[in-house]
Amino acid sequence: MGRLTARTRVARIAADGALARREDLLAVEEPLELRVGGRALSVTMRTPGHDQELAAGFLVSEGVVAAPGQIARMIHCASPDGENTFNVLDVTLAPGVPAPDASLERHVYTTSSCGVCGKASIDAVRTRSAFPLTAGDPLVRSSLVAALPDRLREAQEIFERTGGLHAAGLFDAATGEPLVIREDVGRHNAVDKVLGWAYLAGMLPLSGAILQVSGRASFELVQKASMAGVPILSAVSAPSSLAVELARDAGLTLAGFVRGGAMVAYSGLERLRVESEALVP
What we know:
Layout: E1 5-13, E2 19-27, E3 30-36, E4 39-46, H1 51-61, E5 71-76, E6 88-93, E7 140-141, H2 142-154, H3 157-162, E8 166-172, E9 178-184, H4 187-200, E10 209-213, H5 219-227, E11 232-235, H6 241-250, E12 253-259, E13 262-267, E14 272-273, E15 279-280
Parallel strand pairs: 3-6, 7-14, 10-11, 11-12, 13-15
Antiparallel strand pairs: 1-2, 3-4, 5-6, 8-9, 8-10, 12-13
């Protein structure tokens, strides 16, 4: 796993007070500075790996790129002392692609739990998607959506070893088969990685995919799904009020508390074919 995990000495105290010293695994968290055309745009705390996907997904979710070929190249840059720590990534946009608006610049670092810190206003993150959603399409069995959290969990290799990572996965809406799954200390980073993977593979818009996340559904995750043309977002925990508002405005199906075969549909019920009492009203 390389830089994805790190070993450390810990002391485990049991319920009966017994003390045991042992070696444990931690999920690695390191900063990534994202530059566009040599100009710093954002710093995020992330799990190293799939950095180009992370950058591409971030630019998709911010409305900077949408069509294939709009990213010319991405390279890791050396630090001022000449050492390449792989923690600075510079993106070159293709000729004719406008540079990110100055309002996107985040002058404070983005933590692993918050993706919109530093934005000038809430209006700045209500980005208009290049891929408007079609009402009622696709029509998906509710039981298929209900099965996705377990499929995502089974694929979380690093979480199994550390217990410290979020995950996001894209699944085929017709078959439920996984298209790509990524893990990261930040849930928004994990989503950026899967959306970046899809962008680089020329798969946008993701009109036939379901985005499954391992935690709650925040405003930003709904925004990211909408920007990539994802019609259905499924989360194992609760959404925020603003996430529900945006999902309804965008025509996106948002399911929360997707656990044990049940779920709560907050928007877009018309895309879910309910086969039993699996859907909680």
